[in-house]
């Protein structure tokens, strides 16, 4: 997959005589067509790179604050601020990277509870502790909406859950931009156009105004698979007290995050910098952890009144991301936007450097092994680092291609090993634990020629084994 970026150029006249407009009009509603047409117009203008790299400056301390500088609110203030809160999750992703067929948020994490179950447990505990009715907002894709709603219908929850479906747009042939058609491509015709679609959807579907009418003013939005993204009363207080329109949580880079989006400042205004905007000869500079020390967690706080006011002035004109992919042998493009790029649309937007504990995404089974292990304790729906572990860093995990399939993963680990003293686990091929195990230091396991079967109660410390 190739990803590059185009800077938005503003809205112009809709080119209704263009043949592409007519072709898209057969597949989309008028409101969807307007949105998609602008994205296509940006794509036709070509990608935009940073022209004056030397002008790129790290944000000053007023635009990129440290969490430690924020005041802690009194309990009485927190209760009042929670009455203004909405907890939202981006729930459009499938578990395909782990060999799952349904929504990733329904993958089991701990104690037979899925991501979504834990999210709702967190909010339920807030409701109970603070005597609140905090609504939960779920942006689903057409891939996840039906299964998510079916799961929610089986649950009892004390406050409202608002699940809505984002837009779906047709993929485009890379050569001529003609849209794929359902007659030929069936279910592969359409795709969800990224989480930046959130803004138009909540506005057009009436959800934004409804929340405001109910007295909700602050939205905390994050990825459904990020179990570190829990409501924080300190950040909520900062949003409320200082009337912040938009806040993006950043966290310090590690070697695994060097390509993640970061922030820079131009003429006192904060901007999001993605690797696709970086000139080819400056990519090493971008990845340098000294020049750009933090990256975007996609934990986003939004003042809903400020958002409504801004949308009344016109669309946000978000930066357009382009994914070049193949369906079989056919090159196609998907035009997408990201929720974080709205940062540039709000005067007074800020970045906030937070602890790494607020960024705990599960993208692969490598991550799933970590969150299922004794490196974390489960408390009121929240995963908390086990204080027994001496190292502040989580171990490095690479389970190899075979174990990225969740069925293979679960066959390999019928019981999750003790990882408290693990530094690194590297697995290649088919490796199976028969029961309890303890892994310490640096462990390399290989089951390429033959399956490597490890007996119950085994301790492996700083060694390599082959099947």
Strand order of the largest sheet: 2-18-12-15-11-3-6-7
What's the CATH C level of the largest domain?
Alpha Beta
> Per DSSP, what share of the residues sits in E-state strands of 2 or more residues?
25-35%
CATH fold topology of the largest domain: Spore Coat Polysaccharide Biosynthesis Protein SpsA, Chain A
Query: How many alpha or pi helices?
Result: 13
Q: For this entry, what is the oligomeric state of its chains?
A: single chain
Largest sheet, in brief, is:
8 strands, mixed
Tell me the overall shape.
globular
State the distance separating the first and last CA atoms: 34 Å
Output the radius of gyration. Answer: 23 Å
Q: Share of helix among residues?
A: 10-25%
Low-confidence stretches are 1-14
CATH superfamily of the largest domain: Spore Coat Polysaccharide Biosynthesis Protein SpsA, Chain A
* Quantity of strands, as a count: 24
Mean pLDDT: 92
How does the helix and strand content classify structurally? alpha/beta
CATH architecture verdict of the largest domain: Alpha-Beta Complex
Give the total of domains: 2
Written overview of the protein:
With 467 residues, the chain is of the alpha/beta class. The chain folds into 2 domains: 2-358, Alpha-Beta Complex (Spore Coat Polysaccharide Biosynthesis Protein SpsA, Chain A), CATH 3.90.550; 365-466, 3 Solenoid (UDP N-Acetylglucosamine Acyltransferase, domain 1), CATH 2.160.10. It is built from 13 helices and 24 strands. The strands form 7 sheets. Strands 2-18-12-15-11-3-6-7 form an 8-stranded mixed β-sheet, with helices on both faces. The protein has a 4-stranded antiparallel β-sheet with strand order 1-16-17-9, covered by helices on one side. A hairpin with a 2-residue loop joins strand 13 (262-266) and strand 14. Helix 3 (75-82) packs across helix 9.
